[in-house]
Design brief:
20% helix; alpha/beta; globular; eight-stranded mixed β-sheet; 345 residues
């Protein structure tokens, strides 16, 4: 398989590749779902969105990519994210003195519109690094297809079954899309409740992409049909979470209003600082207790890179209470943690 790209000089390419592989070897110790003792209907979701903004270390002074990873001005980057994850997934104590389960998600826009780290590295080192993070689920977005249908297939197949999109089928009914490598959903059986994660491919974003051999369905209809067809949709202790990228905040709000969908975590590329508290976005849909969640990617000359930390509690009355904390993982073993928003109990 070949991909036509312009590359850096051999020396620069090898230097970046060496740094990349070093980061990729820093394996996140958990297996996507981290076990802990819990006796309540409570769990955590750690998530990133728009990972393409935070892959490389950047110079804190000007927000540009670091040329020397040992420079003291360098912050963020994949290695620091790995360090932060290891800190956050240790056994922790909540207000009731119990531990909690953790689900770890990549909520979309992983590549971005022009993602150098995939462009320069021909996919494989980047895929190895993403796999080393051991996500529970990775949202597959339309940006994956910017390199062509064959390249997208290679990327999805390499994610080892954690690439999620439920609204994609093969035009050949005898063959699943991407040779079965694309996952529609996964249910996590926690001690006192079930959590189902679903992903989707933004249909509007696919209009100018190569979809040869694929049928892309409207994501809202696909999510509604999935939830309505679930045998567990009427169970009181079953939570549905969707992850994915959309083009506008209004489109995200439409998805969040889907009956039966409890939480939608989405790419924050189209939200503004005015919509956010400490770099995070948390909004309850009035009247139906559904939640819309994201984090704000860094803009030009900014260096924040946020790990979202969502605490979810299902009360005895069936109300979903959600709070959000941001971890700005600037340095190894250190982050700037801020309370973002909290629901009313």
């Amino acid at each position: 398989m070949t991909f036509s790209r312009n590359f850096l000089s051999t020396e620069s390419r090898m230097h970046l590749l060496s740094c990349f592989l070093l980061l990729a070897l820093q394996l996140f110790a958990s297996q996507g779902l981290v076990n802990g003792d819990t006796s309540t209907n409570e769990f955590r979701v750690l998530f990133v969105n728009d990972l393409n903004y935070g892959f490389y270390p950047v110079n804190e002074l000007d927000g540009k990519k670091c040329q020397d990873i040992d420079d003291s001005a360098c912050v963020a980057g994949l290695g620091r994210l790995v360090s932060q994850l290891k800190n956050e997934t240790r056994v922790e104590t909540f207000s009731n003195g119990t531990g909690s389960q953790i689900i770890w998600l990549d909520a979309g826009n992983t590549l971005g519109k022009s993602s150098e780290w995939f462009d320069l590295m021909k996919f494989q080192p980047a895929i190895s690094a993403i796999n080393s993070l051991k996500f529970s689920a990775v949202a597959i977005g339309s940006e994956v297809f910017q390199y062509g249908r064959e390249a997208a297939s290679h990327y999805i197949s390499s994610l080892k079954g954690v690439g999620f999109a439920l609204n994609v089928n093969s035009t050949d009914e005898k063959e699943p899309p991407f040779n079965g490598a694309l996952t529609k959903s996964k249910t996590f059986d926690l001690p006192n409740l079930k959590v189902t994660v679903i992903g989707f491919l933004d249909k509007d974003g696919m209009r100018d992409k190569d979809v040869t051999g694929l049928t892309i369905y409207d994501e809202i209809g696909a999510i509604e049909n999935f939830i309505n067809g679930s045998n567990s949709k009427n169970e009181e202790n079953h939570i549905f979470i969707a992850i994915g990228s959309v083009r506008t905040l209004s489109e995200a709000e439409k998805i969040a209003k889907i009956k039966g969908l409890n939480i939608f975590i989405f790419s924050g590329a189209n939200i503004t600082k005015d919509n956010c508290v400490n770099g995070t976005y948390l909004k309850e849909v009035p009247g139906i207790n559904n939640w819309l969640v994201s984090t704000l990617p860094p803009r030009a000359n900014e260096s924040h890179h946020i790990l979202g930390d969502l605490s979810v509690v299902l009360s005895k009355t069936g109300k979903l209470n959600v709070s959000l904390i941001s971890h700005d993982y600037k340095t190894i073993n250190q982050s700037v943690d801020r309370a973002a928003s909290r629901s009313n109990s």
